[in-house]
Amino acid sequence: MMLIPTEKRLDADTPPEKRGQMRDGVRLLTYWSDSGRIVHGGFFQLAHQLEAGDVLVFNNSRTIPAELKTVDGIRVRLSREVEDGTWDGLILGESSKKLEFMHGLKALVTGPGTEPPLVRLVFSCSSSRLLRELYRQGDVIRYEHVARSWPLQDYQTVYASIPGSVEMPSAGRAFTWRMLAHLQKHGIRLAFVTLHAGLSYYGDDKWPNPALHPEAFSIEDEQAAIINDAKANGGRVIAVGTTVVRALETASDGNTIIPQAGVTSLYLSRTSKLTAVDGLLTGFHEQEASHIDLLQTFAGEEGVKAIYKEAVAKRYLWHEFGDMNLLMRQERS
């Protein structure tokens, strides 16, 4: 579904803090799917769209510098850890099966990855040492809409605590500690899950197939209890990002969230029935099929078209440094 021509999109290539704003100074477009009502405001006003007893669920995975460069200058982007020392990755350019990086780090291409164009990489060390090498010689993965390099800290949410995502779970980037405290003061509860996000784009107009794009996740007992208690007492569950939707719907038994750790390949389409999540906070991103399909589980096809048409007309900013979109399934009086 083509929503808008690319040339009409306003890509944000600079963090808000570098363009004279606070992190939470971006804009917020709120859409209620039952009424079709759209409200514009500032992201710091998010509490006005929620109610006491609602729970915001965040992904606390921390972004790692997941792009390496071989001694020959070939760029290698990691996508996900398959097992200790073994990763799916994307090689940008022609290379041999033997890859050599700085400081003695090596990797062997042993075959195809989970889906093309990913390949399976076996490194010469454990994943714990590889993580140290990534922080030593790796770089942040960035795409064409970001013209220059920004520090790793600009690709972290303030609450990120568990390293593992090769790209920032960007829906939570605009939150500040001040804003989190403000939300709690208004009776809105906070819960955290972990899902290590893989590559969202392979280049040359190729995006991952969600069914072939497994991602590791975990939900602890205490966090599941917060979510389940909110739901049982009439509160709404709002996922901060599509990664959280994927984790919660995977862990749902239809009524409650079951604490667990594992890998999910869940693909949510417009016909999927959501049992855990009542709302979604997300940014404005590429119009590739899986992302749009997931948005349609909340707003339907016409609703998503209306959201993106309004976002273009009001000049909202796209991508991880851009503005925010709250989709709620039902408006309360």
Helix content: 10-25%
Identify the overall geometry: globular
The proportion of strand residues reads 25-35%
Query: How many extended strands?
Result: 19
Structural class: alpha/beta
User: What is the N-to-C succession of helices and strands?
Assistant: EEEEEEEEEEEHEHEEHEHEEHEE
Describe this structure as you would to a colleague.
- This protein has 333 residues and is α/β, with parallel strands linked by helices.
- The protein has two domains: 236 residues, QueA-like, CATH 3.40.1780.10; 71 residues, Thrombin, subunit H (Beta Barrel).
- It is built from five helices and 19 strands.
- The strands form four sheets. A nine-stranded mixed beta sheet has the order 3-2-19-17-15-4-13-14-16.
- A hairpin with a 2-residue loop joins strand 7 and strand 8.
List the keywords:
QueA-like, Thrombin, subunit H, 2 domains, nine-stranded mixed β-sheet, 19 strands, globular
